[in-house]
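ok so I'm stuck.
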Amino acid sequence: MGTAHLIYEARWLLTYVLLAIWVVLKIKQYYRLRHFRGPIGTGWFEFWHGLAYLSGNSHIKFKEATDRYGPIARIGPNELMTTSIDLLAHINGARNKYMRTRWFYIAARFQPNRDNILSEPNDNIHTKRRAQMAGGYSGKENRELESSVDTHVAELVRLIRTKYCSTEIKTNPFDLAKKTQYLALDIISHIGFGEPFGCLLSDQDVNGYMKDAEQGLDALIYLWGFGLTELVLGTPLMHLLGRSDKAKTGFGAMTANTRRIISKRLEDDPGMTKGSDMLASWFRHGLDKEQLVNESIVQLLAGSETVATAIRCIMLYLVTHPRVYVKLQTEVDAAVQDGKAPPYPSVVSNATQRQLPYLWACCKEGMRMHPPATNSSQKKVPPEGDTVIVEGKTVYLPGGTNVGYCTWGLNRDQKIFGADANCYRPERWLNEEDPKKLAQMNLVHEMLFSYGKYQCLGKPIALSEIGKTIFELMRNSDWNITNAAEPWKETNASSVFMTHDFLVEATERSAF
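replied:
not stuck anymore, here's the structure
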């Protein structure tokens, strides 16, 4: 008898043996995290976790889990989600041994076998890359940072005043979601490449970056939802997803466009000696051409999607809360009348806008109510495990466990923000008398840009864009939402929000 015949005769025995092994492994996996509660089935299967991503509302699903099951909830056989500020600060601390979870972070990879600052799992390589890139985000090496932001904020204001203003005679609704995206893309391309895409001047999605980004993020939902990130993005199958330079849409098309820009720049200036932008800084600090392409795509996505979302959310909450709206506009007007801010068409300076307390209370509160991104930033517990204190209780985390950050839940935690945590009230940032509570609140805000050794390098630029834009929008126009019943259409795509049809009406305030 041949081997094939013996296997066939023993097929049922082999099936039972394999099934028994699978059951034993599942029981062992369940047992490791048995002390953590979660939705039904999460201890055994990934279904709930995957369906949360596929729903387009994963941020709400994760918050519901932590609200019901506590500050550490089980959302998968090896996945935990937490709203513990102390645990998150510990995980992201500079000296801890927690590592990025590969299945999650590999989703930020845009080229086969090439990691970038977002996808790189190796701490040493990540730290070195941060050091190489940090100068590009600073005013010392990128001397036109603030002026670049000012240029495009002024373009946005001018576009609204000249093309989209409403009057008593005619209402002229426009999609603020698109305009904020144009703004963010023009700023990040200007400070990144030394030349803006020109979205605001042309009032369109130049090069199709917005369309390509949306298609790429949409595809990523399914990779996370079906647990295919490692299989697809860690193998040559990546090309089938459209992340090849030859693709006509999605991240592949973004890569091709970015490569063309950088190739032309290197052809015209091989040593990158003429520019003082991000590309020039990164090149001087050792990044090669492929690394420049890779990191530039990351900045285009991270530097535009999240900033645009932050501006939209802040404006939404301002326009729907008249008391706050009037109070902020009074502060803005006073800054102009007192000479702290220059007259139109100039843009408020960083120094001035950072000193306006109510402006930043409104910005912080808007981002708290609707975080710009809900990246769970999963980290893997060191192999030896870790013992931590969560809400006064000792908790053991087994080695190899993935721990994620429940952004939506933490930013609405009543223990930190009070009983009205689900309500919009900017004064909470100004009137909190307990210094420890205020420090906690500010730490939660800081974590919107990640924390510790993983903190976003572009945070200062993002805050500059946000503060200047909100100031100038409130200074130059009065605002209304066109469709109060449904202000916008929004989907959580891979932890980044895709927003459409945020129709607003702007009436010119000529006195300011």
